[in-house]
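NAD(P)/FAD-dependent oxidoreductase structure dump, as promised
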Amino acid sequence: MPIPFSDPIWRKPQAASRFQSLFPSGEKADVVIVGGGIMGLSTALHAAGLGMSVQVLEAGEIGQGASGLNGGQVIPGLKYDPEWLLEHFGPERGEALVNFAASTADAVFELIRDEKLAVPFVRNGWIQAAHTEVALKAAATRDRQWRARGADVRLLSAAEIAAMTGAQGYLGGWLDRRAGVIDPLAYTSELARVAAAAGVRIAEREKVVRLANAAGVWRISTENGLELQAKAVVLATNAYTDGLIPGLAETIVPLHSFQIATAPLPPNLAATILPEGQAVSDSRRILVYYRKSADGRLVLGGRGRMALPTSTSDWAHLERALRRLYPMLSDVAIERRWFGRVAMTPDHLPHIHEPEQGLLAVVGCQGRGVGLMTALGERIAGYLQSGDARQLPFPVSPIRPIPLHAFRQVGVAATIAWYRLLDALER
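structure tokens r here:
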């Protein structure tokens, strides 16, 4: 019996196309983008808008990777708050980073509006839920820094977070009303549709196996024997990065993000669980995140095992988290289970690399990829056109493989298990 481990609730729009559009043999593109996820498609769309000729090559199908399989939370900001960014990057670069981080959710919702994307969404904010006093103090620090910049944020009391989430066990939290939720597969599919309408050529099932630079012209070879030429190449494969660029895969630790979805909630429970439709992430070491879907299910996700799942028991930790937060859902069936691969960098920041002129690579979404990669795609396109590094919010950095990378995943798996135990003891 097949294991239902790849059955997301997200759906492509009914009019979603298959893509097999390629540049004619011998014709040179301005840019070839390897990877048809949010980062690659956003870059392609904005590059086409700047007058560039663009080819996107996707190894699988559009939306098949983490871009279509994530939790659909659109969260502005980075893992670090404004004061940290200013301290570590200096006043000029730090200020640019803070402003960029503040804009990432806007980039998504403005794109949905301006391009009339058929994407279900709710923009009522994101709640960072605190289950300890330490987490509550961290939320107060974050709130102070963002409120000072005019962001639409506020702290939540224990009573307020209980009313807004319907969940048990939180001491308070932080609400960021700039955020929201989308259907990520619909979003990725619609990005591909409007990019193609703007003149971008997109080809699915074209795995790139070789990149070579000769006299300033990039030659791109695929597994199917396709040969393309381009002035520039953007590698937008993130957690699915392989050996195309030497050492790049060793700069990230790929992790699996597992998710579950309940059956549609009965009306009496739907009225008390996330009644305003916010997204939630909690403060645990191995956090869980959750939201309601457009068809009224509760969707909950978190880190899963490092290896591929082999049975539905691999999602048991999420089911336990769901029952802990919402005991009233003990009789509501878990109908869907799925997972996607995400990438972690050691410093928890996205990395932009340019190992050779005309070759760009971006890795590391850090759990905020929907907004981050949408906004970053526009900046990468601007950089491709102008060559002005000020277009890039993050500095271009050299590729630095993680020491003993082969053992890093073993260490991460052990850390996840230890943190999960500590979280369980804290309740």
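Residues 410-427 have pLDDT under 50 and may be disordered.
lmk if u need the other ones
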